[in-house]
Write a structure and sequence with these properties.
A 3-stranded antiparallel sheet has the order 1-2-3, covered by helices on one side. The protein has one domain (11-129). It contains 3 helices and 3 strands; from the N terminus they run αααβββ. The protein has 132 residues and is of the alpha+beta class. The chain has helices at 11-60, 67-73, 81-84, and strands at 93-99, 104-114, 119-129.
């Protein structure tokens, strides 16, 4: 019997375990980046819905509420973002569109840039309102 002990790990075993650990850490890091990306998208969508609702509520409060009065105060195709302080997203625009008279179909489209002007995002809310 020799005096060398067979206890411990070989260099190959340590390298294999380090490679497995590195792979697992890379997967976890990728999941974190994906999570933060989804959270940013969710945050931007929530802001866009909130801004569209704000504009719709202001349109609903138009007095007297009539199709002609609404379209005169909030013209179709005109960006209303600055008017209502809806500039929370990059290059955000809030544009109304109308169809019909009574009931009046109102579409509010919120557009903004995502990821440093790489991708444009849109969100539309549609509602029907009738004259009071």
């Amino acid at each position: 019997m020799s005096g060398l002990s067979k206890k411990g790990f070989t260099l190959i075993e340590l390298m294999v375990s380090a490679a497995i650990l590195t792979g697992a850490l890379l997967v976890i890091l990728g999941l974190f980046f994906n999570y933060f990306n989804l959270m940013e998208i969710s945050r931007a969508n929530s802001i866009a819905v909130s801004d569209a609702k704000l504009v719709l509520e202001n349109i609903r409060d138009t007095t007297p509420f009539s199709a002609a009065n609404v379209q005169a105060n909030y013209p179709a195709g005109v960006d209303l973002a600055a008017r209502f302080g809806c500039n929370k997203l990059p290059n955000e625009t809030v544009i109304p569109a109308y169809q019909g008279n009574d009931p009046l179909q109102i579409t509010i489209t919120v557009s903004w840039c995502y990821k440093r002007n790489v991708a444009n995002r849109n969100l539309s809310l549609v509602t029907l309102m009738t004259e009071r």
